[in-house]
């Protein structure tokens, strides 16, 4: 018995060695047929509209979606349609403003500067205006980078710089959303009472505020019909931006991924609309009209400017004992 065992010992050692060497190889083997079937099932699921999902350890289980066919449609809208709309909105607006300037030129004070000024906006009003305006400019520029930056900024600065800038732009966009919302509420509370429609607005609109006719200045209160329209477009557009923007910041509040994508598209459309409105406001408040910028700069405007563009408001201020400062006929320096 012992002799038999000893005679077979080399064979047993050989078998043990082969088993030890073969074990890792056996463990590393993958069934190619099973793998092929799994891949075919995944491709079939994608073709039928289902999405491929994995497992995640974070609370939001929707983050486990790896591939979702429905995203192709959203990616097409985001990458093509919204880009075209955004660029077209900016270019068309600039073209219209340039054409209007070529036709009308700068709207000047017909009676010239009087040398006397009247307070148009106090510090609280101007603070709310500039808070809203400055935050929107940052949001517009950083948001525009998301839409067209890859085709405009990237070729100019290169991939590394573009990546760094885009990361900072994203942070700026996220954090400046809150000052924008605060400014929106501030402006609404401050001016809503002065921006309600009135009968005077009808006559102002009939002659387009005299914008196309030299020497025509229809009566208006503190805000004319055009400014009232601007006010409500900014408020409603700002609310739309803010509402959809919250879902951009906190996507799990949006519901399903499809709902989040819908909010993102609506957000971009509101942004394009607001950009058009603000472009027009910036133009008429600076280059387009003489004496207008000082209203939000120093808060004071020339008395002749106020009488031509807001005659009813001047009468109201005088009635309240708030006359103009300065001497009539004194030399005046344009505020703009």
UniProtKB/TrEMBL annotation:
GO biological process: one example: formate oxidation
One MF term in the entry's GO annotations: formate dehydrogenase (quinone) activity
Membrane-spanning ranges: 84-103, 130-151, 171-192, 229-253, 265-284
Localisation: Cell membrane
Gene3D superfamilies with a match to the protein in the record: Transmembrane di-heme cytochromes, Chain C
The keyword Metal-binding appears for this protein: yes
All copies of domain Cytochrome b561 bacterial/Ni-hydrogenase, residue ranges: 120-297
Coiled coil regions in record: none
InterPro entries tied to this protein: Cyt_b561_bac/Ni-Hgenase, Di-haem_cyt_TM, FDH_cytochrome_b556_subunit, Formate_DH_gsu
Pfam families: Ni_hydr_CYTB (PF01292)
Cofactors (names): heme
Membrane protein topology class: Multi-pass membrane protein
Keywords carried by this UniProt record: Cell membrane, Electron transport, Heme, Iron, Membrane, Metal-binding, Signal, Transmembrane, Transmembrane helix, Transport
GO cellular component: formate dehydrogenase complex; plasma membrane
Coarse class of the protein's main subcellular location: membrane
Signal sequence extent: 1-22
Annotated family: Belongs to the formate dehydrogenase gamma subunit family.
Protein name: Formate dehydrogenase subunit gamma
Organism for this UniProt entry: Rhodovulum strictum
């Amino acid at each position: 018995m012992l002799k038999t065992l000893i005679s077979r010992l080399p064979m047993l050692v050989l078998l043990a060695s082969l088993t030890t060497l073969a074990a890792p190889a056996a463990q590393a083997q993958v069934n190619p047929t099973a793998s092929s079937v799994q891949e075919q099932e995944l491709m079939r699921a994608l073709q039928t509209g289902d999405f491929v999902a994995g497992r995640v350890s974070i609370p939001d289980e929707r983050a486990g979606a790896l591939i979702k066919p429905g995203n192709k449609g959203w990616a097409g809208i985001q990458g093509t349609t919204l880009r075209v709309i955004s660029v077209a909105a900016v270019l068309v607006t600039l073209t219209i403003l340039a054409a209007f300037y070529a036709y009308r030129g700068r709207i000047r004070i017909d009676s010239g500067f009087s040398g006397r000024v009247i307070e148009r906006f106090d510090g609280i009003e101007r603070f709310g205006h500039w808070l809203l305006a400055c935050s929107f400019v940052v949001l517009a520029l950083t948001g525009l980078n998301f839409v067209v930056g890859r085709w405009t900024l990237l070729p100019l600065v290169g991939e590394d710089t573009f990546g760094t800038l885009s990361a900072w732009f994203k942070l700026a966009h996220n954090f400046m959303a809150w000052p924008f919302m605060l400014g929106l509420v501030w402006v609404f509370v401050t001016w809503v009472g002065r921006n309600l429609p009135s009968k005077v607005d009808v006559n102002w609109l009939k002659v387009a505020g005299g914008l196309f006719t030299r020497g025509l200045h229809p009566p208006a209160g503190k805000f004319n019909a055009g400014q009232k329209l601007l006010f409500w477009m900014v408020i409603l557009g700002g609310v739309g931006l803010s509402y959809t923007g919250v879902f951009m910041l906190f996507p799990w509040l949006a519901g399903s991924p499809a709902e989040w994508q819908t909010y993102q598209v609506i957000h971009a459309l509101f942004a394009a609309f607001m950009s058009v409105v603000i472009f027009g406001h910036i133009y008429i408040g600076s280059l387009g009209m003489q004496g207008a910028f000082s209203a939000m700069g120093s808060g004071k405007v020339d008395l002749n400017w106020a009488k031509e563009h807001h005659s009813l408001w001047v009468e109201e201020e005088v009635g309240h004992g708030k006359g103009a400062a300065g001497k009539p006929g004194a030399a005046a320096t344009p505020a703009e």
